[in-house]
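Appendix B, Record 12. Input sequence as logged:
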Amino acid sequence: MKKQQPISQRKLLGVAGLGWLFDAMDVGILSFIIAALHVEWNLSPGEMKWIGSVNSIGMAAGAFMFGLLADRIGRKKVFIITLLFFSIGSGISAFATSLSAFLILRFFIGMGLGGELPVASTLVSEAVAPEKRGRVIVLLESFWAVGWLAAAVISYFVIPSYGWQTALLLTALSAFYALYLRTGLPDSPKYESLQPQKKSVWDNVKSVWSGQYLRPTVMLSVVWFCVVFSYYGMFLWLPSVMLMKGFSMIESFEYVLLMTLAQLPGYFSAAWLIEKAGRKSILVIYLLGTAGSAFFFGTADSLALLLTAGMLLSFFNLGAWGVLYAYTPEQYPTSIRATGSGTTAACGRIGGIFGPLLVGTLAAQHVSFSVIFTVFCIAILIAVASILIMGKETKQTELAE
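Logged structural output:
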């Protein structure tokens, strides 16, 4: 097999980051589309909740399946497949005329979304020096904020005037980028060095859940579940929550755009701190900030408090995501790294199923948002406890072979 030329760190970050950006843009636009479909299709909160949850069911399946596949056929191939999955699916979903058809397509789109993230973070983590790895992974995750900002801008300017279908077609353009990746991206050098030693899929799954890897797998599964449960419960519903609080659609989109801007400093501060203070302590601090912000957002009774709490929520929550993506692949050796990252991310995606369902169910029963967001606050505190009890520091350590 012909050996591929190595890629520069900056180019690798850009290539993987743009894939991450398209992923975020699709998820971000979905939160605005849910609000638009609420108006156009006259959806009830009970129907709205299934859009986000079916997307997360697909993400759980994709994270697990594509994580296993990446340890068998390589990170690059799976990265490209997942990009095509959600890009083409998004384009087709623009022509959906019923909720049932839209939900079926969101499942397949979710598979691509869920598979792309752990595979991309694994690929980048294996190609970067230990002293820079954490910072680069958090910067990779910062492309998520850019994608969300693009989603918010597209939603604000496009959906009210041209419809949600046009917004979805714009996200489908990322399929062209996926094709470009076929010639522009080498696979992980660590993965290629293990080609003759690859184990079966079943052996990889057993390894992740046994022996020395059982403790980090349990810890990461709990953390991912709680973080994704709260994130998708809160952020997929942000535009709809603003609508339910009496703001117009354009006002809601504008305020969520302002909140989204706070994600970028959240990522950049975490990227600066992660190699100085370590993964474990920064993750705990940012999660505690997320818990406090969620509580105050739920209890806010004025626009100023809503915007302040919402911006702090974006700052701390997305900074924590960046650290968690850096922390996860470092727990496993190369032979099962994508399997471990995909498996624990899949546990998180299960949380993403229940978060939107919880909000929709409680909102339909007229439960106050202060109670709903307190539930998310408690979930984040459970994640913090799991890290403090079972987590280990992996700052600047060599990745195990």
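Residues 67 and 342 are 4 Å apart (CA to CA).
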